[in-house]
Amino acid sequence: MRKKFLTGLICVFLIAAFAPSAWTHTVNRAVPLSKAVKRPDGYRAVVDELRAWDLAAARKKIASLEAGSPGRAEWRALSGAADYLEGRFSESIANLNAALKKKPGDGEWLELRLHVRQTQTAMQGFKAHKTAHFDIWYEPGEDAVLLPYLGDALEKAYARYGEILGLRPAQRIRVELFSNSVRFHRSSTLSRRDIEEKGAVGVCKFNKIMFLSPGALLRGYRWLDTAAHEYVHYLVVLATKNRAPIWLHEGIAKYLEKRWEDGERKGYLHPGEEALLFKARETNNYVPFKKMEPSLIYLDTPQEVHLAYAEAASAVDFIYRRMGEGALVRLLAGIREASPAQRLQGAPALGEENPGIRHQRRASLVELESTGPPQSAEPGLRLIAGVDLGGFERLWIEDLKKLPLREQAGSQVMLPKLKPKGPMSERSIDLAALKSAVARRRMRLGDRLSFRGRMRAALIEYRRALRDEPYSQPLLNRAAQVEIHLGMIPQAERHIKRALEVDPDYAMTHVHRALASEMGGDAESALRAWEEVVQINPFIRVVHERLLAHYERTGQTEKAKREREVLRAMSSR
């Protein structure tokens, strides 16, 4: 009876819920030119504190400046910037209005006021879900389902990364979860192109963490890892007073993004990223760390972007293995405590971080990250390794040559895709992804046969299509689904194994792994697979039903309670 139930359960799922690796980053955007504006003494010192997100120090300096020279527009503007970074939007606009009343037309303040208003509009109707250390702002509706998982992951990240990086913020940390790309664009300043074409789903900026709901993506993505990744960026800003370069920011965040979880998942690289790193090592064609400035988003191709992530994470792994976990804390402290002269050593000249980008640092209370002095890891590298950046790159490359990297045939990192606005179906997207016209015809025929209940005939077509496209996730999962339906568990497990090797972030592969494990009597493996699905696409009701059954059977009362609440929330939508 149980086997019959599980076989019927297979038909509940849509095939191939694709969930590629998320592209997340702290963005240092190129900003337009503007004329220099003369500011009174003390103004830039406050901006430095705002740039470092040390709001207590910024407030103290503003109060001192106000006491010495009361009533100046500049102090009201700085107060407005601090208000914004604290999430107090109405107060921010009021202070900026007061400043602009005294000095109309100030471009820096007008720019900030416009952004605060856009953020306020984007956040309209949001509510706060509070945990011990985080305020999670979300749009009431289906995203309420995410809150128990997100809160748990962030609190685990707070404890785990506090141990690793030696930093546990005393202030509450603001998190904004957006249900659609339009709101995310308005609040984050990420461009529509960054989000819609380049797959940017998360950012740590403005003293907060912002990211897209997995419900906004076609097939979800590793949204909990993304939240943890962005929280690492938050810690690196605080630990270095925002003086760390992007390659180090991204390397630490990528290396640690999975370590929030109990029973850490193996490896820090996606198979596709490992394949890119393997190829770069074979051809000696790397992305230089200096080219990664001012942001990875400006690199020439998506492959270069993902290679840069892999390189940066590998460099942090090198620090861990060769110098110990404490070396990372010392590295960040060395960057933070360096003198102005030391910070300029090895830093790119203004406008030369990436030769392909035309930009100039200028005064901006919005783009704080990109308006200060150039950021450099060199003071920290000299402290822990006695070398400059070039020397460190050479040491890392020599070490990389000794590592057992795998070619990972068939693996590639895919960009997250937003849900299509038009009528295009997932099946159409799956077909379009196939390079072989023969494979497309066979997939189309296999789909028609399976819809008519002719499962064995459909399986023949899927297997034939796999001869031309052996690494296609949609085909591997279609074949596995039919094999599970037919009770061919060993055959299904072979297809599932290959699918996981190609891309472990494809939600339906874990669904099929869970079903095959349950039919094979392996409850523990099934539980782990269902939990993996939640980390990619948490909006599949049956997943929560199966988790509830597992938790009730094993006496995990708190988790069972969470799943009942999630199912209740899903029913009320």
* CATH superfamily caption of the domain at 125-350 and 375-400: Neutral Protease Domain 2
Biggest sheet features: 6 strands, mixed
User: Tell me, what's the shape?
Assistant: globular
- Architecture of the domain at 125-350 and 375-400, according to CATH? Orthogonal Bundle
Q: Provide the structure class.
A: mainly alpha
In spatial order, strands of the major sheet run 1-5-6-4-3-2
The CATH class label of the domain at 125-350 and 375-400 is Mainly Alpha
Report mean pLDDT, rounded to a whole number. Answer: 89
Helix content: 55-70%
Specify Rg, calculated over alpha carbons: 25 Å
Strand content: under 5%
List segments where confidence is low: pLDDT < 50 over at least 5 consecutive residues. Answer: 7-34, 353-360
Rounded to the nearest angstrom, the distance between the terminal CA atoms is 32 Å
Would you write up a description of this structure?
There is one protein chain. 57% of the residues lie in helices and 5% in strands. The protein is mainly α and 573 residues long. Among the domains are: 43-105; 125-350 and 375-400, Neutral Protease Domain 2 (Neutral Protease, domain 2, Orthogonal Bundle), CATH 1.10.390. The protein has a 6-stranded mixed beta sheet. Helix 7 links the parallel strand 3 (134-138) and strand 4. The protein is globular and about 85 Å long. The two termini are 32 Å apart. Mean pLDDT is 89; it is low at 7-34 and 353-360.
